[in-house]
């Protein structure tokens, strides 16, 4: 298969309290809400996990989805928490503002191995490098793997990601410059994805989806969902393929054409999120 012209889009976090997460991502990390969508039933591609209930997703980051890596905060109504495993490592962000904001609001920062670590309300780690970003502040997303060589082969040789750097403990990959990189880090203990497992998403041209699907199928790779169409009420339909790597990390490849239309920023998204938090019968009112 030829090179894959991909771009890293977002990572999916399951969250249990939208109000606390809105505060953390907006006030502490300084991100902005670009889209907020409500759904009455589960997603065909299990975007919200194995739940068939009302749910929402909030796209939040440092810039529009057309240029920046963002985070999809997936909320299942009535689910207040998820068991977190050790499959997710953390997010590396370059910023000169976050630590000051954390201090201002007495938000805990842990110093470990020379790194500043903030944990989201659900326990997802963010590594803050105190320097001005030269592009997207989100520089890396780290996931843990059991076999580094096998994982490198899958992501580099099969999914065609470029290797930026590597050592005995980790491999850093990307589809191109000026986008967030993916770091695979070797885990020395058994890998547990538990209930909070996430998903990383990439866009590729629609014409590249079927060749990618066929290549993964021929290699015996795990295909969670073949090429399917996903609808968002009132918005564009997208084509997606959902895969799983050798460690069962979920990977979504969405068609660039449909996603470009779907991901247009909504100036009212932040207000929509706030409105649904107030209306949520399961949300603790403070």
Structure description:
The chain has 286 residues and is an alpha+beta fold. Helices cover 21% and strands 36% of the residues. It has helices spanning 18-28, 98-104, 148-158, 206-218, 256-262, 269-279; strands at 7-15, 32-39, 55-61, 70-76, 88-94, 110-112, 115-119, 125-129, 138-145, 162-166, 170-174, 181-186, 199-204, 222-230, 238-244, 250-255. The strands form two sheets. An eight-stranded mixed β-sheet has the order 2-3-4-1-13-16-15-14. Strands 6-7-8-5-9-12-11-10 form an eight-stranded mixed β-sheet, covered by helices on one side.
Characteristics of this structure?
single chain, 286 residues, alpha+beta, eight-stranded mixed sheet, 6 helices, globular
Task: Give a brief rundown of this model.
The protein is α+β, with helices and mostly antiparallel strands and 286 residues long. It contains 6 helices and 16 strands.
Number of helices: 6
Q: SSE order in H/E notation?
A: EHEEEEHEEEEHEEEEHEEEHH
Question: pLDDT below 50 for ≥5 consecutive residues: which ranges?
Answer: none
- Estimate what percentage of residues fall within beta strands: 35-45%
**Shape by Cα distribution:** globular
Radius of gyration over C-alpha positions, nearest whole angstrom: 18 Å
Based on helices, strands and strand pairing, what is the structural class?
alpha+beta
């Amino acid at each position: 298969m030829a090179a894959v012209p991909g771009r890293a889009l977002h990572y999916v976090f399951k969250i249990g309290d939208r109000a606390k997460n809105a505060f953390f991502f907006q006030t502490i990390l300084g991100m902005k809400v670009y889209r907020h969508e409500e759904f009455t039933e589960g997603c065909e591609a299990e975007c919200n996990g194995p739940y068939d209930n009302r749910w929402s997703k909030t796209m939040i980051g440092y810039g529009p989805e057309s240029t920046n890596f963002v985070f999809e905060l997936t909320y299942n109504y009535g689910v207040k928490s998820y068991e977190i495993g050790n499959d997710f490592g953390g997010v590396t962000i370059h910023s000169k503002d976050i630590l000051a904001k954390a201090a201002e609001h007495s938000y805990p920062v842990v110093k470990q191995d020379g790194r500043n670590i903030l944990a989201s309300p659900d326990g997802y780690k963010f590594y803050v490098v105190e320097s001005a970003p030269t592009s997207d502040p989100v520089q890396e997303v780290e996931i843990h793997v059991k076999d580094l060589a096998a994982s490198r082969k899958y992501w580099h040789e099969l999914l065609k990601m470029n290797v930026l750097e590597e050592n005995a403990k980790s491999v850093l990959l990307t589809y191109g410059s000026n986008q967030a990189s993916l770091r695979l880090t070797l885990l020395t203990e058994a890998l547990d994805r538990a209930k909070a497992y996430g998903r990383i998403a990439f866009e590729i041209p629609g014409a590249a989806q079927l060749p990618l699907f066929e290549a993964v199928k021929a290699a015996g790779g795990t295909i969670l969902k073949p090429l399917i169409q996903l609808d968002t009420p009132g918005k564009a339909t997208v084509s997606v393929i959902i895969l799983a790597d050798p460690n069962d990390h979920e990977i979504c490849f969405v068609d660039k054409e449909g996603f470009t239309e779907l991901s247009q920023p909504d100036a009212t998204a932040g207000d929509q999120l706030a409105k649904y938090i107030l209306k949520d019968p399961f949300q603790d009112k403070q």
